[in-house]
User: What shape does this take?
Amino acid sequence: MNILITGGAGFIGSHLCKRFVQRNDYVICVDNFITGSKENIKELLGSPRFILVDHDISTPLYREEDLDWVLHFASIASPKHYLELPIKTLKSGLLGTHNCLGIAKEKGAKFLLASTSEVYGDPGIHPQCEEYNGNVSITGPRSCYDESKRGAEALTYAYLRQHNLGVRVVRIFNTYGPLMQADDGRVVSNFIVQALKGHDLTIYGDGEQTRSFCYIDDLTRGILKIIQIDYALPLNLGNPCEFKIIDLAQIILKLTKSKSKLKFLPLPEDDPKKRCPDIGKVKTLLGWQPEVGLEDGLAKTIEYFRARLKKGYID
Ligand code: NAD
Ligand code: UDP
Assistant: This one.
């Protein structure tokens, strides 16, 4: 297949590029490197099955190649970065999705949107199933990300209804693993790097808020399955094992054998109190469920960051 992946030099996108190239697909990776890095895809750069296009997907993109799939993963995706760059975040979610849908329609390709558990906002039901319409602040600091993804989903279904485009919408829950950026402020990378450096682990609020963490290999396996079935409605993809942030900190201290202390900082505005996917639909439709437990996944991620620190790639 010929697959165009936006955000292909980012954390999830680069893992996907590698999976597709390994199974002999052709990949066109589109990225503007605002948060991604060439380092993530360096082993693909010489491959005849891989093309890298440096382009901001908020502006239209024209390609000569035939395409089977357009996978839209480009987004400013971590709270730290989208709070700094709210307008660019909205543009990659809304204009970027529109441009990707336009490419898919022009090429007769199918389209997959990387959506997010953030469409559920600070959820009023637990765990979150796909039918839940969410509790998102329209005007709050996280709205640039949450509403860009909700708008992106609306655009996707407009193309399905008006142009009968083949679409998939994957609502991804917190995912972690090697190739995460060390400095994008997400909890797993922050805690691991802090623990390895012997710095205090920064707990926002009292640490009683929960997240459910999915290892990257489980996530990419799920995405590969989703493009094989004919199902257009949104699908949650994540690991339903739920942890308090304070417990995550203790697990990381144990696995790294770090003597770091915990430091409590204010909870960011609109930080969701609970998050856990209901994965009943993907289990039934795909026979998919996560296979990597938190401690195993964290151990691999810790090794990755330990090696990066040793090589001096992390300040
Ligand atoms: P990431 O920041 O590592 O990757 C995003 C990539 O998109 C980066 O390479 C960045 O340079 C690129 N990009 C951003 N704006 C762009 C633009 N306008 N044009 C071209 N490229 C652009 O983030 P990630 O964690 O890999 O997230 C990938 C996708 O998955 C995002 O759409 C994100 O919203 C979604 N997602 C991720 C998670 C998670 O836990 N990692 C959870 C839910 C949803
Ligand atoms: N968090 C924290 N310390 C950090 C980074 C994050 O306590 O150094 C908390 C954050 O407030 C949130 C959770 O960890 O409750 C997950 O944050 P992240 O930015 O990874 O993703 P989110 O799920 O909020 O998008």
